[in-house]
Specification:
heterodimer, A: about 180 residues, mainly alpha, B: about 675 residues, alpha/beta, 7-stranded mixed sheet, 21 helices
């Protein structure tokens, strides 16, 4: 898989789904719980259909983060055809140097750690919200304030994760 | 209408703007909930009642920016620059009646093109081509460049899930007001704030009326000025509402105090003391220490109207306050710190005053911190119907006994053809006068409007600041003398009479006191005739006589003018009442309400030609000082009818002839 493949996966997961679909849906659910929007449809649909999308896609996100430093390291440039004639030993050696320099120059490890931590926090908040919504098909009026607090925490975790993913580089650059 | 106004924004976004063949655009609904927008796109039939934003910050129209707007599997989606610009234009150049202009555009960056497949991430979306996601070729930026070129005044904010950094240099050069990340917790709140500061919004308080682009731009500048503590200079013709804007800026700024000073309203030698204060004994008459008005405004705003007429030496002292924030009271050497934001206003050409050394150039530089230009009424004629409505209702309330009225379309048309040299102030006066003079009418008609020089095309009218007699287009007004009669004596008489009447009209308008809501807002025939004759000492009776003579000079030419002109009608009627000519004579006969009288000359006692006076049921009748009715009048009675022309208002009859008078009795 090339770096463009990783970038495409990120765009599909982070931009197209998490930012443009999932996060606005969580926002809208919070608005409904908070009484700013009236929508019986959202109240019924969110716990059953929207929220569980996280469970369907978190594996892809986890993999995306795991792949990041392998797919976006400038080492990958040495696999391009203009370097095809290079001796494999030299390519390996040069690749290690380029990768090491990249990691020195950029806070690669921190990027990955931050994103993985955000991922875990979102996963934890997801479980909390799911737990809060489980007893009833949809939150009762009495339970809404507590559910809203949990939903807002989940939304913030979701925002934090999108930012951590977005901050990862958008192109592979030669140092 | 103003109070319930919601800004109308245009959201250009492939995902949110796409139409779906069945069902709702769920992403759009969620976005409306997230940003508290009311979707008024009107492309979804079945959403009524499904979701309601209870306190929306704006109405939103969603547009895809691509062809086709409703794409099915197998379709190819392409970006549509021209179609999008056309759509913007429709809500900008000529929005539907009652629809406000776009307050702002929210623009996406990345638009997915290409085939719509069942694998596309969302129904109806293109699967995306590599260039779509490349910051160098974002369609959103192409659109932005075109909007900047074609709709320079239209505020744009970017709402995108893409990072801003790779494109920030480009979009900031194209006048973008804000970048709102889709994932930012603060974005909904920031959108509201950006909309309030940079959006083209009318004044929600309803005090500044109008929705035209020139006014909305001035209001936008005023909001931006209000958000800072920079000094403000408001420029605009007389009557455009500079003081109203100063108050708007003050209220929007949230400061507690507003002190207002009109530079020409204060005696020159007292101005410095008024502004800066003085110590006890600082000058003759300074008995007590006094805090100046600038100090009164400490912590707030200080509005100086008509700054162009401020004396140069006072400007120098004021410059120090503006620059350093310190006031030195007269007679003191101790500067006192003040925290004051200055709002200056003028209708004068300050640059010209600087060239003429009547205004300090350095002061002008300091004043121009934030500049707000107010449009003339001529430049915002689309606001006229709203303004007319406002002033009519206001005049009805302030005029005791005035009936509520509808506004005739011809009256609006007539006002739209008038150049309004006195701007909104003049409009208010014209309508106030119309309501006062025709308070029992239930329609505002063109004939009720005292428009100086009405009927002259705006281009032919000089943009005078105040109404003037010179502006009255006597020669341009068609008079009722026929072409065939133009070379005859009658023709000359007719032309002369018509011109005299028009001169009188101009003099009446010029000398009318022009404060809305005050009793002296009415015309004065004495002042008008004084102006017309150059005799400032003329008394009212001869003035009334002159007016009557003008109208009797050649009635065939002047009656038609009189008929359609409430100002002249008022003047003529006033003159008649002031110099009424009682008709005395003997009743010949009474046909219903028509009284046939044989008049008697009071000097000679000779009888004149019989005349007919029409009474009406309300005519007051006295016979020997007792109230009577028409039927009590008998042939042979000696009567005095007042006034002599038109409908009689009072008939006084005596059963016997007055002594020392010769009367002729004629039997029926």
């Amino acid at each position: 898989m090339s770096e463009t493949g990783w970038l495409r996966r990120r765009a599909a997961l982070n931009h197209d789904w998490l930012k443009n679909q999932y996060l606005p849906a969580v926002w809208n659910f919070c608005r409904v719980l908070g009484g700013q929007v009236r929508s019986p449809d959202v109240l019924a649909r969110f716990p059953r259909q929207t929220l569980p999308q996280w469970e369907q896609r978190r594996g892809e996100l986890e993999l995306l983060l795991d792949d990041f430093d392998r797919m976006m390291s400038p080492r990958i440039l040495l696999g391009q055809k203009q370097f095809a004639s290079l001796d494999p030993g030299v390519r390996k050696w040069m690749g290690d140097v380029v990768d090491a320099l990249w990691r020195v120059r950029y806070p690669v490890a921190r990027w990955v750690l931050d994103a993985q931590r955000s991922y875990r926090e979102m996963d934890a908040m997801y479980n909390s919200l799911k737990h809060a919504l489980e007893p009833l098909a949809e939150p009762s009026p009495a339970a809404r304030p507590q559910t809203l607090r949990t939903a807002v925490e989940f939304r913030k975790a979701c925002s934090a994760l999108t930012r951590c993913i977005e901050i990862l580089p958008h192109r592979v650059e030669i140092l | 209408m103003i109070a319930s106004f919601l800004p109308r924004i245009l959201v250009i976004d492939d995902l949110l703007g796409r139409q779906l063949p069945a069902g709702r655009n769920k992403e759009r609904a969620d976005m409306c909930g997230q940003f508290l927008l009311q979707d008024v796109t009107g492309d979804e039939d079945d959403k009524a009642g499904e979701m309601e934003v209870l306190a929306p910050i704006a109405q939103a129209v969603f547009f895809r920016g691509q062809r086709p707007p409703c794409a099915l599997s197998g379709d190819i989606v392409e970006n549509d620059l021209e179609g999008t610009l056309d759509f913007i234009r429709r809500g900008w150049d000529s929005p539907n009646v009652g629809q406000p202009l776009w307050s702002m555009v929210l623009l996406d960056l990345c638009f997915y093109t290409g085939s719509v497949t069942s694998n596309s991430f969302t129904e109806g979306m293109g699967e995306g081509r590599p260039a779509d996601s490349d910051p160098d070729s974002y369609f959103g930026l192409q659109l932005l460049e075109a909007i900047h070129r074609q709709f320079a005044d239209l505020p744009v904010a970017i709402l995108s899930g893409k990072p801003s950094e790779p494109v920030s240099a480009r979009y900031s050069a194209l006048g973008v007001k804000a970048f709102l990340p889709r994932d930012d917790e603060e974005s909904p709140q920031n959108l509201e704030s950006v909309l309030k500061t940079y959006g083209l919004l009318p004044d929600a308080s309803g005090k500044i009326i109008g929705q035209s682009l020139p006014l909305l731009l001035s209001l936008r500048d005023a909001r931006v000025a209000a958000a800072s503590r920079s000094n403000v200079l408001i420029r605009g013709e007389s009557g455009t509402g500079k003081e109203l804007f100063a108050k708007f800026i003050h209220h929007a700024g949230g400061r507690r105090t507003l002190v207002t000073v009109s530079a020409p309203g204060i005696e020159k030698h007292l101005l410095a003391s008024e502004l800066f204060g003085h110590k006890k004994g600082a000058f003759t008459g300074a008995g007590e220490k006094r805090q100046g008005k600038i100090k009164d405004a400490n912590g707030g705003d200080f509005f100086v109207d008509e700054i162009g007429s401020m004396a140069v030496d006072v400007q120098a002292s004021l410059l120090r306050v503006v620059e350093d924030g310190v006031v030195v009271p007269m007679g003191s050497n101790e500067p006192e710190s003040v925290d004051v934001r200055f709002i200056f206003a003028t209708n004068e050409d300050l640059e010209e005053l600087v060239r003429a050394e009547k205004f300090r150039g350095d002061f002008l530089m300091r004043m121009r911190g934030k500049l707000i230009r107010l449009p003339s009424l001529r430049d915002r004629m689309e606001d006229l119907p709203l303004l007319i409505e406002h002033f009519v209702r206001k005049a009805e309330v302030s005029t005791p006994g005035a009936k509520e009225r509808r506004i005739h379309p011809d009256a609006i048309k007539r006002m739209q053809q008038y150049p309004w040299p006195g701007n909104i102030r003049e409009l208010g006066i014209v309508i106030q006068n119309a309501v006062e003079h025709f308070k029992l009418m239930t329609w505002l008609q063109p004939a009720h409007l005292q428009l100086e020089g009405a009927g002259v095309p705006p281009a032919a009218k000089p943009a005078a600041v105040t109404p003037s007699v010179k502006a009255s287009p006597v020669s341009a007004t068609p008079h009722p003398v026929s072409e065939s009669g133009s070379r005859t004596l009658e023709g000359a008489l007719g032309r002369a009479a018509a011109e005299l009447v028009q001169l009188l009209k101009a003099a009446l308008v010029k000398t009318a006191t022009t404060r809305v809501g005050q009793a002296d807002g009415e015309i004065s025939i004495t002042r008008a005739v004084a102006l017309l004759t150059g005799n400032a000492k003329i008394k009212t009776p001869p003035a009334a006589d002159l007016i009557k003579r003008i109208f009797r000079l050649y009635p065939a030419a002047t009656d038609a003018i009189l008929e359609g002109d409430p100002v002249l009608q008022n003047a003529f009627s006033t003159a008649q009442q002031l110099r009424s000519e009682s008709l005395t004579g003997t009743v010949l006969r009474l046909d219903g309400l028509n009284l046939h009288i044989l008049p008697a000359d009071s000097q000679t006692g000779d009888a004149g030609q019989p005349v007919e006076v029409t009474l009406d049921s309300r005519t007051q009748i006295e016979i020997d000082r007792a109230s009577a009715t028409v039927s009590d009048l008998k042939p042979g009675m000696y009567v005095r009818v007042t006034p002599s022309a038109g409908v009689a208002e009072k008939v006084v009859a005596t059963t016997t002839a007055p002594r020392k008078r010769t009367r002729t009795k004629i039997s029926d």
